[in-house]
Structure formats: C-alpha cells, structure tokens
C-alpha cells in the first residue's frame, strides 16, 4: 500500500485551488442567470402550448383542406418534440442533487429509460407524421412551383432529413452510452 | 434553513475540495474543473432550501459535487489541459516534474474506473472519512471499505503497468 500512500500524498500536494472574489462574483452572476432563465423557460413553454391550442382550433375550422392538414402534420410533431425536449431538460435540472449518489443514479436510470422510450417510440412516430404531412403537400408544390424548384424542395428535404437523423442518432447513442455507464454500478 | 447559511463562507470553505473532486472527473483539466465547480455552487445555492440538516453541510456539498460531476460525464470525454512539456516548464525541479507526471498518470487511471469507483477513490484521496463517504454515496461503511481496498490495488496496477 506504500505506492498508494505516495500517490495520495502527491494528490494532496497538488496545486491548492484558491477561491477568488472574481470567481465568486461569476457564481453569483450565474445564479442570477438561472433565475431569469427559469422565467424565460416558463414563457416559452406557455407560448408553445398556447400556439398548439390556437393552431388546433384554427385548423379544425378547415378540416376539408388537404394542404392545411399537411402543414398541421408537419408543424405539430415539431412542436410536440420541442416541448418534450424542454420538459425533459427541466425535469433533469429539477432532480435533487443533494441526495446520496446511489439514489441519484436510480433517478437518472429511470429518467434515461424514459428518454429511451421517447427516442425509440415517440420520435419515430413524430418523424413518420412529419414525412406523411410533407408528402401530402407535394402535389400542391408540384402544381404551384416550377419543376426545378420542386425538385430542389424534394432533394433538399431528403438531405435535411438524413442530416437531422444522423444528428439525432448521435445524441441517442450518447445518452444510451451514459445509461449503460450508470447501469454498470 | 437557507437564511441561516452564509453562502459566501460556504463557497470559500469548500472551493478547494470541490474543484479537486471535479479535476478527478475531468482528467485533470483545470479550467473545466473550475467551470464545473461554479456549476456545483450554483446547484448548492439552488438546493439550500432543501437542506434539512440531517447530515454535515460538507457531506451534502460533496453529494452535490459527485452528482453534478456524474451528470457532466454524459457530455463528452475529457483530456488534460496540461502536457508533459508544460509541466516541466512550470516546475523547475525534476522532482516536481516527476510528481506532476505521476499525477497525470493517476488522472488517466482514474478515467478507467466506473463512475461509482471514481467517486469512491476521489473522496478517499481527499481524506474524507469512510463513514462520510458511505453517507455521500448511499452505501454501507463495510462496502465502502472493501471497494476502496480493491480500487487501491487496481490503481496501483494501473500506475505500474499502464492498465487496470
């Protein structure tokens, strides 16, 4: 154990971290920022829900219109996904960090299992709805736009979808990796 | 409870140990550890209302530190912000350079440990009593004792052979 005691000694003799007034001021500024961020977050959530409700009533007046339905199927899944994401971040930030690490990890495990369901069940459904809504709009685009611009929209939307999917898959992998890391203990 | 606690004093008294625990999670990257320590203290301030006084204030702060560092791990893998040449420049003597090199190795070895083992050994390195470590991590004293013993052996092997 002598080697370990030497290591411990080296560890304890490493540079002493001295708190400065400047850093403390930065902490205080961050606390202020957190307070205003919470207020902004509440406003965003309220606005998102209001838009969703308004849009629902607005669209229901035009149920015959295929174009409106197409648009609705594109916008609503996006808004739903953004809202889920905002609630997820909020939920994670609200977890009490002052509890014992074991209990904290149990909460994280549950949280990331729920995230897994969002990623593997909810997101594919929303993406499917979004794509379906987009294909509903294609006949209108074809009728109203030039062939070149129509082709551009089709090709670029496929590219955007692929890029977005890669990004989402990367994020999901990161979360799954973290889940498996905390599951190990 | 929140009103009874002097946040500024709490910050100055615990800053050093909080940064050093963060350093262990961030492979010795000092600037990132200082940023993370700021986040820890923001969380401490936010949670002060929930502190019931069932444990020592320092125990509670270390819990927040360990849990915040754990959450940080989901973001990315870290690399040290110091390299061997910098260390040699900063430290004039060969002994200091050897010590820094050893520390760098130690940081590297700690990265191979699971999240729980990381927390255990970092608190042990800071001389936090094992009973308090058990309280911070939510484990029994006996489990803490046995695991620390095993981790010490693992670290020893890692330092000598370069793997765990």
Automatic annotation (TrEMBL), chain A:
Domain of life, source organism: Bacteria
Keywords: Membrane, Transmembrane, Transmembrane helix
Transmembrane intervals: 40-61, 67-87, 118-137, 149-169
Protein name (database record): Uncharacterized protein
Organism, scientific name: Saonia flava
From TrEMBL, chain B:
The keyword Isomerase is annotated on this UniProt entry: no
Organism: Saonia flava
Domain of life: Bacteria
Protein name: RNA polymerase sigma factor
A Gene Ontology molecular function term of the record: DNA binding
Gene3D superfamilies membership: 1.10.1740.10, Winged helix-like DNA-binding domain superfamily/Winged helix DNA-binding domain
UniProt domain RNA polymerase sigma factor 70 region 4 type: residue ranges: 105-153
Keyword presence, Zinc: no
Keywords: DNA-binding, Sigma factor, Transcription, Transcription regulation
PROSITE patterns: SIGMA70_ECF
Domain RNA polymerase sigma-70 region: 10-77
GO BP annotations listed: DNA-templated transcription initiation
Transmembrane segments: none
